[in-house]
Amino acid sequence: MKTLTSKSSKLTKLLTTGTMTALAALALTSQTAQAEPTGYNQISFSVDASQEVQNDEVTATLYKKAQASSPKLLATELNKAMNQAMNTAKRYPKVIATTGSQNTYPRYDDNGKITGWTGTVSIDLKSNDFASASELVAQLQQNLVVQNIQFGISEEKQKQVKKELIKKASLEFKDQAKSLTETWDMSGYQVVNVSINSNGGYYPRPVMMMRDSAATKSSAPPAQSFEGGNSRLSVTANGTIELIPWMQ
Questions:
Q1: In this structure, is the dihedral angle defined by the CA atoms of residues 179, 182, 184 and 186, taken in order, positive or negative?
Q2: DSSP-derived secondary structure for 139-186
Q3: What's the pLDDT tens digit per position in 145-190?
Q4: CB–CB of 126/57 below 8 Å?
Q5: The pLDDT of residue 195 is above 90
Q6: Any bridge partners for residue 199, and if so which?
Q7: Which of helix, strand or coil describes residue 83?
Q8: Closest CA relative to residue 239, chosen from 48, 3, 107
């Protein structure tokens, strides 16, 4: 009798274990099936998150234009101007100065004969110190001409702000998905795909352009007071969700 009871108990345990295993497998299969989009009840939308950020970086380009009777004489004059500019920039350690573009092209007469050469060379500046950058630009304007001045957000600051905006855009995407689920009277949703894109950049500031002849004055013009202003950084979350209907 004890043996029969023992066998019955073992059989019950086996059946229970088998049933639980089957239920677990069924649940896993159900979850896997639910995770696969069906292609029905899909809605695509986008949300934006943006923020006004104070510009903390200035970039500027100044150039020298010259003419000469030969490429050698032209290169000598342009190289001299660039060397002077780079030496002047070294006195401003808070400003990063790099050699910019250089172009040389011939001049022709009416008969197509080369009569001389014209060339330009430029220097690019970048700094988080507006006062130093402004003073350096004024010093360089003794021999160079300002091509453009732009203000923007430094890479480090952009990364910090965009990280926060990505989080904000993601939360707004989730809120919108939940709202659509409720609006369409569905039991839930699953994300089919989502992509996050960001944008921002530099904004040019108009400057008074000097003529080449005016740039040869012996004394530097007064430094300009730089006001960087603001830039808007924005992040957009685009995606598609699939609404899950109630089980019938």
A1: positive
A2: HHTTT-EEEEEEEE--HHHHHHHHHHHHHHHHHHHHHHHHHHHHHTT-
A3: 999 999 999 999 999 999 999 999 999 999 999 999 999 999 999 9
A4: yes
A5: yes
A6: 234
A7: helix
A8: 48
